[in-house]
TerB family tellurite resistance protein (Roseiconus lacunae), 219 residues
Amino acid sequence: MILIGTMNLTRTRESGQFYCPTCVSTQDYRLRSRRPFLTLYFIPVVPIGGAEQFVVCGGCREKWDPSVLTIDYQHPSQVRPDGETSGQLSADQFHDQALRSAILVVLDDGFMSEAEIESLLGLGSHLFGRPIDREELGELCSIAEQNKVRARNYVTSVSHRWNRDQKVEALQAMFLAATAEGELSDSQIKLLADMKDLLGLSDEEYHKAIGEALQWEHV
C-alpha cells in the first residue's frame, strides 16, 4: 500500500534583533518559514504551496508578520502630515493585507460560519475590487490558522504603511466581516476597539467609519 499525505516543514531563515510591540523592548527574533509538502511514506518529496513566513519573538513568543521587522520605532513619525506613509504600497498589497486582517478578526473566536465566509467573499469582490473564490479564501484561512499570528499582531505589523484612508477601509472590512452574523461577541467588540487605537484613529473617525460601513449594501 502506498502511503501519501501532506506535512508542513518549518525552518528558521534568519535571526537577529527587533523591537517587539508586546515586550515594548528590543528582543531576539527568528524568521521562520513554513511550506506544505506532499509526502510519500511520510517523507516530504514535493512542495505543494508557497512558503509563508512569520516572526517569532524570543521574549514573549508572540508571532508576527515579517513586516514588523521594517517598523522604525525610533522614528514614529513615519506618517507624514498629509496622512501618507513613508514607502510605497500598491493597491493589491493593501487589499491583500486588509483581507487577511478581516479573516483574522473572524477567526479570533476559532470558528468561521457560512455567513462570515460569504461576507469575506463579498469584501473581496465589492469592497476591494479583487474577486476571490472559496479555494483562495480557504488557503488564506489555513495559513492564518497554521502561522497563529493574532489579528492584533498582524495589523500592528502591516498597518504602519497604510495611509489614513486605507486604515479606515481596513477597519470597515474588519467590522463588516465580524458582524456578518448580525451581532458581535464581547471579544470581537474589544478587538475592534483595540483596532481603533492600534490604527491611530480618533473616536470621531472610528464612529464615522462604522456608520459608513453600516450603510453599505451588497457586501
User: Anything to note?
Assistant: The mean pLDDT is 82. DSSP finds seven helices and five strands in the chain. Helices lie at 91-106, 114-127, 134-147, 151-158, 164-178, 186-198, 203-215. The CA atoms of residues 197 and 203 lie 9 Å apart.
